[in-house]
Design brief:
- This protein is mainly alpha-helical.
- The protein has 7 helices and no strands.
- The chain has one domain.
- The radius of gyration is 15 Å and the shape is globular.
């Protein structure tokens, strides 16, 4: 279960915490994961036109940096997986949208699919969420939710 302990606003002064909390979106009191994913959308717009391999590299960098950022912020808070840490949602959304044609419909479908997998956490996502510790554990369930959403989104694209 994610902690909802309030994150001090002063954490935004630290660049690692600022990234961990999705540029402040994770500090919102209701649905921080959803707002973290919403923050990913304009970032996706910035990188969606790039060559696939550059997009892939950026997604890998965000994911790997997210492991460090999640670990750093969760240790500072003294909480394993705080609901306000949302860099994992940003990485998961980037994974979801990998090699998807740029269109508002697919942006929305990708958002919904990712949120469904992230919230419902079907197996093995739920297993990762419960059994993996540290920054890697925080990131892995969202990475896998992003992969599941990516597979569903590309399946929809293939059959349409």
């Amino acid at each position: 279960m994610k902690s909802t302990k309030k994150i001090p606003i002063t954490y935004l002064k630290n660049p690692v915490h600022f990234i961990s909390v999705g540029f402040g979106s994770g500090l919102l009191p209701k649905a921080p994961g959803t707002f973290g994913t919403l923050v990913a959308i304009p970032l996706y717009f910035l990188i969606s036109h790039l060559d696939f391999w550059i997009y892939f590299l950026i997604t890998c960098v965000v994911t790997i940096a997210g492991v460090y950022a999640c670990s750093y912020t969760s240790k500072a808070l003294g909480v394993h997986d705080h609901s306000g840490i949302v860099i994992d949602e940003i990485a998961g959304y980037f994974i979801t949208m990998m090699a998807v044609p740029f269109d508002w419909l697919w942006v929305l479908v990708g958002f919904v699919l990712f949120r469904i997998f992230d919230i419902l956490k079907p197996w093995p996502i739920s297993w990762l969420d419960k059994n993996c510790e540290g920054g890697l554990g925080i990131m892995l369930d969202d990475v896998l939710a992003g992969i599941f959403a990516l597979i569903c989104l590309h399946s929809i694209l293939y059959f349409i």
